[in-house]
Design a protein that fits this description.
Blueprint: H1 2-14, H2 16-31, H3 44-55, H4 61-74, H5 86-92, H6 96-106, E1 112-122, E2 129-135, H7 143-155, E3 159-162, H8 170-176, H9 179-187, E4 195-206, H10 208-218
Antiparallel strand pairs: 1-2, 1-4, 3-4
Amino acid sequence: MINAALAPLDCWILEREHHIEKTKQLLEENLKNKDPEKIVTPEPYVAVPAIQALSYSMDSDELRTLYANLLAKSIYADTKESVHPAFTEIIKNLSPLDCKVFNSIMSTKTQAIGCYELRIGTIGSNSYSVAFPYVTAITVKGPIEVAASIDNLARNNLINPRDFHYDDDAFYTEIRETAFFKDISDTFSTHPNNRELRPYKMSIQSTEWGKLFYKVCAVPL
């Protein structure tokens, strides 16, 4: 049973050199339209961990893309200085779903989105409990999984869920149209056990660190 479980890892070890060759091919593709005279030797403390990590992330398009962009930026003179060695560790902390959620946030015009914290309280009382921390319009996965990704992205300081709301209700309209939001609203429409739903407007904004990470690792050279 153990041998069967570890069989894919055995294959990875055997194919490690093949993965490194594929890494080189990815870099050649990323740099094919760039000035060859500006291709320089990368810093080992950036390139070596990134190549090692990329070699076991080949099966994930999302992670492979981040590593490949990071490596391409690290060996190109015009962008080399923007590559922080911590970026490799951050990518290691991300799942493919985290990448999709991050891209959903960063690809918006403001690199920020509206968000609801769903609070439940007894009618007539100011106290409440948080039933769900982050309800967004992101649909790359279910709301529970997306909320977990938001937590992880915030833990890595790429985004910042804030107790701040936009005056423009357009940031929240799409959220209210999601099946998840509607289902919870319907559940509390009859005030079960004298409780009410109190959707609280918030926002999720990119950090300066997150913007740099996105520029280096998510945007092609």
